[in-house]
Design a protein that fits this description.
193 residues, mainly beta, 16 strands
């Protein structure tokens, strides 16, 4: 059975149009529909303590993910015409903005199971970034080139395997694709099923 917890820090979330919830390590992120656009909390026993706001998102949160170890937070936000992706490093109960990307039609973000990689699905593109030392660099880009192409969502199956849902057409026809990282070539190859 589930037992509701009384968490004082959550009282301030009432009426803020919560969305884009994610967890990782000891952290919980709650995206918001109004400023400050998101709040990061850290679990402490049966309670959560406020860590930081995420005003850098600038718009209502759309999606988020926290790396499995709780070291990184990625969140995307969108207004009518403006979209943003922000990557944060979580350090000792604080966050540091590492990268901000302005893009069109950001739909989804997510980390691989180890946190070694993350993806950004935006418009007709899917970008995969890989951690190299303390930074993430773009490793791969997939573009749906069909009429009205879009990448709607994606998810890592493992650190070296990703599924994505893309579509074409004004009334989209969707296709589920599987990409595997080829260790011999260093490329992401679409696996036919």
């Amino acid at each position: 059975t589930l037992t509701p917890l009384q968490v004082d820090a959550f009282e301030e979330l009432e009426n803020l149009n919560c969305r884009a919830v994610s967890t990782g390590g000891e952290y919980l992120f709650v995206g918001l529909g109004s400023a400050p656009w998101g709040k990061l909390f850290r679990r402490n026993g049966n309670n959560f303590e406020f860590v930081a706001n995420t005003p850098e998102l600038g718009y209502p949160a759309r999606d988020s993910d926290i790396s499995p170890g709780g070291n990184y937070l990625i969140a995307c936000s969108a207004s009518t015409a403006l979209h943003r992706v922000v990557l944060y490093e979580i350090i000792d109960n604080s966050i540091v903005e590492l990268r901000t990307i302005s893009s069109s039609d950001v739909r989804a973000v997510g980390f691989s199971p180890s946190g070694e990689r993350y993806f950004v699905a935006a418009g007709a593109r899917l970008d995969i970034y890989k951690r190299e030392g303390q930074t993430y660099n773009m490793e791969f880009q997939y573009i749906q080139t069909g009429d009205y192409g879009r990448v709607s969502s994606a998810a890592f199956v493992s650190d070296n395997s990703l599924v994505l849902l893309d579509g074409t057409g004004y009334t989209p026809r969707y296709t589920l694709r599987l990409f595997d990282y080829n260790m011999d070539t260093g490329n992401w190859d679409e696996t036919l099923s």
